[in-house]
Write the structure tokens for this entry.
Amino acid sequence: MAAPAPALDPGNDPSFAELLAQRPHLSRHAHDGLVMEDVPLARIAEVVGSPTWVYSAGTLRRRARALRTALADAGLTATVHFATKANDNLAVLALLGHEGLGADVVSEGELRGARAAGIPASAIVFSGVGKSEREIRLALAEGIMQINAESIEEIAMISEIAAGMGRTAPVAIRVNPDVDAKTHAKITTGLSENKFGVAYDDALALYARMAALPGIRPIGIATHIGSQITVGMGAYRAAYARLAELVRAIRAQGLPIERIDCGGGLGIAYRDEIAPAPAALAGAIKAELGALGLPVMLEPGRWIAGPAGVLLSRVILQKQGAARRFVVLDAAMNDLLRPAMYDPWHGILPVAPAALVAPTAPADVVGPVCESSDCFARDRALPDLPPGALVALLDAGAYGATMSSTYNARPLAAEVLVDGARFAVVRDRQSYEALHTGQRLPDWLTG
């Protein structure tokens, strides 16, 4: 199991200027304060309210193009399929679809969302350890590109369903290479004790068995060793080297194989991490898999969407405790769950121009939810933030809105897409009335 993250030293936190320098879609204007692309965030808060997720279209395009370019420059025949679990907003998916990306989905809802956003079925991969019969039927009816199977039991289920429908399912086996990605224990997926994939030592026999089943076309092997990987290419190369061995063994048995699914997991710099460049990942794929002559697939999520988004929030009040200053926001853990779940670091920038250059003092940034874990930051250097002040929680474009809930009966926040000097609401703020949609009282309580 991966080791827990070490305690963070607030003295090593990047300054506001350093945070801005690393995020070209954000800038500080003397009059407008914090600006995304060409839109002041204060204007969005005035029109849409808070809390609100705000995404940069330019950043999404730039990062999608950078990844595709790196793969092409490495001489790889490759397709990229955005992991919709990171951000399933239809506008985000449509924008990435226009950039030539497909989708990696893990549920019927994500599959339907990708199709609604205009992503063709021929560019969709269905992953996940527990696909239902209904989901498999939908995937086959849609004619998607690939189903990644994670057990012999699932392979047998796909075969029975496909044969019964008169369809042939394109199936890859997800292999667990037992490689430690050196990431957080809750987001590592390539170790032998993880629930994902089939054991490496069983993969060849299962592939051969799959090839003999009706209703299945075996097309390849897949892996995914974890998320937020920032420790270089060693883990990737180790995993891909094992895949290369497996491909050679499959070919030695005369079995067909069409492509290799390399997964995702490339990390980003939330605080002071050294985030690998796409060229490094492309180089690792080329070095270990390039000689096989097979097309490859990638399934990034966080790397593309994470830096593109912020959570815009307004200060409810500042509370001076016995030993700490608390800045209480109108955003909470039901909006951005990651800090409560993983103890990660998110940059926090004030939005007002004066606050970006004002003196700072330590503060804990918290939400109003009735849980001690509803805390975004501890001992963070921040200026005085009176009630009504706006802040932006950075790098919230991935695993932000998709992990939101209505805990404490808090409506889901609005979502906004910024593109140059224009912005649009791409998901309305949930109404309080909608919180109870679908609920009803039994007749014995209505009297």
Summary: The first strand starts at residue 26 and ends at 29. The chain has a mean pLDDT of 92. Residues 166 and 215 are 7 Å apart (CA to CA).
